[in-house]
C-alpha cells in the first residue's frame, strides 16, 4: 500500500510542475517557482509520512493474534511472559497457587470484563479438563470461555534454590468468582443469625451442580470447599475439573483427589459417582458445623469420615444427620444419589 501512495505522489508532483511552469510574461516570478515547488513537496512528504505512521499504528492495535514478540517488559508484568496473556489482558494479579498451577485475576482489554485465568503445565490431563469444562453449561458450575497453549516462565520450588523454567502451559479463561472459595463464605457468615437457612441454600446449589455433572456421566473426584466458589451474585460455582473423569472409564486412577475428602474406595482403583456423594457428605457436615478453626475441625474429622457424627451435631440437626450418615456410608451402594438427596431437601 506504501508503493501505491508513493506513485500517486509522483504523479501529483509532475502535475503540479506542469501547472506551475512560468510563462514568458511572468518575468520575476520565475525565480520564486522552484521555492514554491520545494515547499509543496515538503508539505506532501509530511502528510504522506503521517498517513503511513497512522496505518502502521492501526495495524499494530488490530493484530492481537500476532504473538511473536515478548511484551512482558512493555506491559511491566513480572507474573507472566506469555505474549497472548499480556496482549489480551491487563491488571494481572495472582489469586491462587498450588500443585495445580496458578490462577490469576485479569481484565480483558477488549470487553473490559474481569476473568479468572488458570495457568497449568500442559499435559493430557489438563487437556481433558478443558474438553470436559467446555461441554458443561450450568448455573452452578464455573463458566468456561476459552483456552490457549503457550510458553511461560514457571517458578519451580524444588530443588532449592528456586529455579525458573520456561515450559509449555495451558491457559484457561474462566468466570471469576469474586467472593472466593466456600471456606471464605463460611468464615464471613457463620455468626449470622440466619446462617443455617443460608447454609442449606448453598448446599442445595452444590447438589444441583453435582447432579448435573453426574447426568453427563462424569465424576468430579475432587470436591472440597476450596474447589467450590461463590460468585458476585452470591451463587455457588463448582470449579477445578482437573481430576474429572468419565464414569465409562473401567480402570480409574487410585489416590486421585484430596485425602481428607476422598471416599475409602478412592484409595483403590475401582469406584464411581458415589465418591462425589461421600465428599458432599463431609462438605455438608462442615458447612453446618461452621468450625471456628482448623484445629476444632481436625478433632472430629477422623470420626466423621468413619460415619460417627458428634452427638451435639446430631441433636442440633436431627433432619440432616441421618442423610449425612447415609452419604458417608463405607459401602458405596449404601449412599444416596444427588437426585435422591435433592428430593429429600426440597420436599
Low-confidence stretches: 1-14, 16-33, 53-71, 248-255
- The rounded Rg comes to 32 Å
What would CATH call the architecture of the largest domain?
Answer: Orthogonal Bundle
Helix content: 40-55%
CATH topology (fold) name of the largest domain: Transferase(Phosphotransferase), domain 1
C-alpha end-to-end distance: 71 Å
Strand content: 15-25%
Q: Give the SSE string.
A: HHHHEEEHEEHHEEEEHHHHH
Q: Count of DSSP E strands? A: 9
Key words describing this protein structure:
alpha+beta; Phosphorylase Kinase, domain 1; Transferase(Phosphotransferase), domain 1; five-stranded antiparallel sheet; 12 helices; 9 strands; 18% strand; disordered N terminus
Question: What's the topology here?
Answer:
Elements: H1 2-20, H2 29-62, H3 72-75, H4 83-88, E1 89-98, E2 101-108, E3 114-121, H5 124-134, E4 144-156, E5 163-175, H6 182-189, H7 195-215, E6 218-219, E7 228-230, E8 236-238, E9 245-246, H8 274-289, H9 294-305, H10 311-316, H11 320-327, H12 338-346
Antiparallel strand pairs: 1-2, 2-3, 3-5, 4-5, 6-9, 7-8
Helix pairs in contact: 1-2, 7-8, 7-12, 8-11
Keywords: ATP-binding, Kinase, Nucleotide-binding, Serine/threonine-protein kinase, Transferase
InterPro entries: CC_SR_Kinase (IPR050339), Kinase-like_dom_sf (IPR011009), Prot_kinase_dom (IPR000719), Protein_kinase_ATP_BS (IPR017441), Ser/Thr_kinase_AS (IPR008271)
Region (Disordered): 14-70
Gist of the model:
By secondary structure, this protein is of the alpha+beta class.
Could you describe the 3D structure shown?
- The chain has 347 residues and is α+β, with helices and mostly antiparallel strands.
- It has two domains: 72-175, Phosphorylase Kinase, domain 1 (2-Layer Sandwich); 182-346, Orthogonal Bundle (Transferase(Phosphotransferase), domain 1).
- The chain is built from twelve helices and nine strands.
- It has helices spanning 2-20, 29-62, 72-75, 83-88, 124-134, 182-189, 195-215, 274-289, 294-305, 311-316, 320-327, 338-346; strands at 89-98, 101-108, 114-121, 144-156, 163-175, 218-219, 228-230, 236-238, 245-246.
- Pfam families: Pkinase.
- ATP binds at residue 118.
- Keywords: ATP-binding, Kinase, Nucleotide-binding, Serine/threonine-protein kinase, Transferase.
